[in-house]
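Input sequence (234 aa), recorded before submission:
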Amino acid sequence: MRSNINGAFRLFRVAGIDVYLHWLWFVVAVYQIQGRGTGEGDLGWRVAEYLALFGIVLLHEFGHALATRQVGGDASTILLWPFGGVAYVSPPFRPGAQLWGLAAGPLVNVVLAMPLTALVMGSNVGLLQSSPVEWAVFIRNVWWINTGLFLFNMLPVYPLDGGQILRSLLWFLVGPVRSLYAATFVGFLGVLGLLTLAVLDRSVWLGIMTLFIGSNCWQGWQQARMLSALERGR
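Predicted structure, token format:
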């Protein structure tokens, strides 16, 4: 159990799960909020959208944590930071348990998509037009945020959810070591693709995020080598 995380402070505790916020979140939040939109009067809406983004991220991470507990694993800490969220979980070392713990996060986004879609449709037909333009734009943007998070997380790029889900599925067929090798190899290809996109789009933020993903993918490859060495030593 993590009682503290360097550079972060605890926000609250729910169901025995401590939620931390890293101080860098505030720095990036100011940068991101200032860069969103150009209207003079939309600052409040930009702040609301950014908070909605991390509200969705938090629910996503709670999905991972609670599902991991459901299969007998440990999950007691969630960290929110500039790259999104991290649920510190320790699921049982079996593919089915890990698959459920991983899939539960994206499933939260699927569940959220239902009421958000209803709200978007309601705003389109005038059911939520007390502030017509602002509400309609806000609801649509939150819908796109939730959809974008789902699609990005489902990319088969280790250690994103999609990459780890791929590893868990392959685990049923080829075991824990080869599945991790395969998932990280696909992950490296994905990292190259994301880096290319970052260069073409001249997106510094996507480049930084991709380098972070690549670093974690390399750690996964090293873990596969360690597990392979342990298997050979038996």
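Checked by second reader. The chain has six helices and four strands.
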